[in-house]
From TrEMBL:
Pathway: Lipid metabolism; fatty acid beta-oxidation. Belongs to the short-chain dehydrogenases/reductases (SDR) family. Keywords: Fatty acid metabolism, Isomerase, Lipid metabolism, Lyase, NAD, Oxidoreductase, Peroxisome. This is Peroxisomal multifunctional enzyme type 2. It comes from Perca flavescens (American yellow perch). Residues 8-181 form the Ketoreductase domain. GO terms for biological process: fatty acid beta-oxidation. InterPro entries: HotDog_dom_sf, KR_dom, MaoC-like_dom, MFE-2_N, NAD(P)-bd_dom_sf, Peroxisomal_Beta-Oxidation, Sc_DH/Rdtase_CS, SCP2_sterol-bd_dom. PANTHER family: DEHYDROGENASES, SHORT CHAIN (PTHR45024), SCP2 DOMAIN-CONTAINING PROTEIN (PTHR45024:SF2).
Amino acid sequence: MSLSFEGRVVLVTGAGGGLGREYALAFAERGASVVVNDLGADTKGGGKSSAAADNVVEEIRAKGGKAVANYDSVEDGEKLIQSALDAFGRIDVVVNNAGILRDRSFARTSDLDWDLIQRVHLRGSFLVTRAAWNHMKNQKFGRIIMTASAAGIYGNFGQANYSAAKLGMLGLANTLAIEGSKYNIHCNTIAPVAGSRLTETVMPPDLVASLKPEYVAPMVLWLCHEQCQESGALFEVGAGWIGKLRWERSQGCIVRQKNQPMTPEAVRDQWDKICDFTDATKPASVQESLQSVVDVLSRVELEEEVSANPTAAAASASGINPTEAVGQKLPPSTVTFTHTQCILYALGVGMSTKDPDHLRFLYEGHEDFSCLPTFGVITSQAAMMDGGLSSIPGLNIDFTQVLHGEQYLELYKPLPTSGTLTSECTIADVLDKGSGAVILLDANTYSGDELICYNQFSVFVVGAGGFGGRRTSEKAKAPLPPPKRAPDAVVIDPTTRDQAALYRLSGDWNPLHIDPSFAAMGGFKAPILHGLCSFGFAARHVLKQYADNDPSRFKAIKVRFAKPVMPGQSLQTEMWKEGNRIHLRCKVKETDVVVLSGAYVDLHGTSEASPENLTQGGGLQSELVFAEIGRRIKDTGSELVKKVNAVFSWEITKAGKNPAAQWTIDLKNGSGSLHRGPYSGKADVTFTVSDEDFMEVVQGKLNPQKAFFSGKLKVRGNIMLSQKLEVILKDYAKL
Ligand code: NAI
């Protein structure tokens, strides 16, 4: 079906000639009522004449179209929109096209050259669009075009004033697209190329003649049609070609280390990496952009532990080529097991008949006989243990320098107590950490066709760094630091002198864990415990403490192996409950050295907090308010989602506990929901405030702005959304 503009009212500014004229004719031809605006100025903004607009109106009418002329400058934005309303009763589309040039080298640019350009292009577009905005909002339809220019996108000699104004319009358009989205107001930007009186001074005549405005107009019509859902985008268009532009950002590089000042020398030394666009990302919003910057804080916090690894050796010539290695698959491996392996593993990670709770993992005749969830690493590690890594092209590494850096395991269903599982292992990424390389191995484990679990092994190869690769990867499952408060629970559990000798029977045959002379070569005074053994200890501590030893509650675990443990030492697991996420840290009790860091276990549970299952036990006044908000969402959630369209998180602090509670109000998805504890999705804005101050704000005793400026209320993310809170909180003053 052809695209019709019947019933639509379109304003094109600067439509007396060039591109604007072409747009006006094209809209009118497809049924639109057109306001043909043109001041009739010369190319530098001087003079004034009604002839330009009148001629185009006449042309349209001669073809049977509907059009009126307007001779005001775009600086009188209201008057242009009033013309549309007077003649046709509404305004649907605004094409900001009027323009002039006052080209000068920067040194010779006068105040007038600068101001006139800003006034016509940027301020003019602002004034015309603002005058149309509320009409569009009320009718829940609007299409706006901003006209930028390649000079703004790339810069152009002699056009400092013009480039600044043109890219200013892009910024304006980006925000209008966001603010307009829920009213069906779309705003896009074009950088056109066409022969016109503006370009005839810079282009040869035959090019001016062949780059016709009619090769641009169809793009403007499409962007302004009700069928087009594009918004907030930028296009170059000319000669019948159209291309879309977006921002690209290098992976970048952290140039700061924990507890050390950031220096300009570090910036200089990492310059190539900062500017390397290999595997660049494409952030598309302030939130995405900010999130990655905020993530750096926790990455810096955890970084030190890797470089402080006790076996760090001098860097050696490296044979790593990530482009070759990434995406390579290891040969699939199959493991068949029975209850014997499950029980052997449980004993390996310290389960004992001393604890009656453990029997369900140790006795195949038990009515609830189960396999420990962390057995999921055993079934997958075979793929690596078989020496598969050494066959990967681009991974020419010294296998005596390999350390297990981190582990992530996620279960999609409880593990069976016997069966055959097949694992497929892929090199997800190879990172350059300077002192070493990190190989990220993703393993999917299947029973037949059914995906049972996913592991990410993060393997640190000492001395293999410096190959010029990226330092971070979006594919890495990141460790997370625990909350800054005393742990909510602590479990102390001794390992035995033979713990490693027992654990290795589950399939990790590395002599480092049994052979004293081999351990000595690695710089250890005795064989060390397997990192995955401590991992198993910690996981079962959480399972017992927070999930009543029910394996079906176990969802995922992440740990970083910070330091080795000697068999016979005691493990002290510290735990912090944050909703369904249990942060944990594991230390050697005797030495107080942290051995598992950045670790957490995710449990299945009811993450959605309904008012009914809210406990009053937290002792926070804010709980009552959130309970009420939860009730309201149940009643009028869909309506609120339409009005608000955002996700808000709160971190409520109390008596130095930060946070004492976390809440998320999701008014963006579905019919809205309230969540307690850490939120798995992404909040648009996060507030941190004390329980007391929160209550003062909701009761109207404390002005939120004041609270913000006095530091009582901290805001991360899209601060502008705070204004929408009023819709949710305004009635709580009565509570
Ligand atoms: P043009 O000079 O033929 O058209 C611009 C029109 O705007 C003129 O008719 C002029 O009288 C009118 N105008 C100037 N000041 C005004 C004001 N204050 N109020 C109302 N009308 C006013 O130029 P062209 O090439 O058609 O340019 C259209 C737009 O496209 C401009 O914004 C220009 O900067 C932009 N552009 C054009 C390119 C090209 O290759 N032609 C390249 C990049 C951008």
